[in-house]
Amino acid sequence: MQEKFENVKTVIPNGFWETFNSFMNFELISFGNDQNRIVITAGLIILLLVSLFVVKLVLRLIRKIYTRKLEPDEKLRFLGAYNFIGYLVYILVFVSVLSSAGIDITLLLTATAVIFIGLGLAMREIFQDIIGGIYIILDKSVQAGDIIEVNEKVCKVFDTKLRTTRAVTRDEKVIVIPNHKFVTDPVINYTQNYKNTRQFVKVRAALNADVDQIKNILIESAKSHPKILKKPEPFVFFEDFGEDALHFGIYFFISESFLEPKIKSDLRFVIEKEFRKHAIKFPYPQRDIHLYKTEKPE
Question: Where in or outside the cell is it found (predicted)?
């Protein structure tokens, strides 16, 4: 073994090692006093880059192994937490490499804190977004795959990052939402508790209509739609007697809240067809006008 090592040394000239050591120990940045002096060398930069690159490969491998059997929505939720954990791992590796190189981390963190205080005053909203991102990731109030309503727009979340959350609306437009909005503004989450949501369609029928027939038509129309769940079963409320109509509501459950407008539209088409088939009239406002004949005064 000693002979092989000597052979390697003879193959690589001594001048190469001297040049390599000089390059790795070359000072790029140095600051601080003599007692607490921080020196950034070319070797330290290379070690940091290599370490972060290796961590990136390991994290990517873990992500592929863990997500290969997950459903699309579950995969999106995992990636939101994965991104946050990735940031923490990078920070820990960065600090560990600096500490192993003999750099006083306490001094570095103190200097960094001062810098962040200055940046925080100048970029307050950006730091609010980052804090909001950490909050929603840990609290799980908004996750990838959730159906939410923000600023009177219903959208589906597909990516949660540290500063922003991205969602797509029903007309296929992407909304980039600053994360502090989820902390300071009210947000409706349709799928926070359950994936299934209850929806309804209002129906008006003529005053002389058969209410039992209408009830059966509405329930059968809802059951015929493939996107409306069979369990829980659809049900009908007879909601009110109007001046010119009977008011009904057909209530049903769906598992794809993002498709709510289309499902309701399809159901209205079916109900309209069934009403015409059974000669049930849709009401329209009526006004009775009475004319009286009066005699002209002589």
Answer: Cell membrane
* Nearest CA-CA partner of 79 in 138, 181, 142, 161: 161
The owner of tokens 């005064």 is 297
Q: Which residues contact 224 (CB under 8 A, 6 or more apart)?
A: 270
Domains in the chain, CATH or no CATH each: 2-122 (no CATH), 136-189 (2.30.30.60), 197-277 (3.30.70.100)
Alpha-carbon distance of 64 to 79, in angstroms, equals: 11
95 pLDDT more than 80: no
Give tens-digit pLDDT for 150-159: 888 889 998 8
User: Strand, coil or helix: what is 288?
Assistant: coil
Lowest mean pLDDT among 28-42, 84-98, 156-170: 28-42
The H helix count followed by the E strand count for the chain is: 9, 10
**Average pLDDT of the segment spanning 219-237:** 94
**DSSP summary character for residue 228:** B
Residues 173-191, mean pLDDT to the nearest whole number: 87
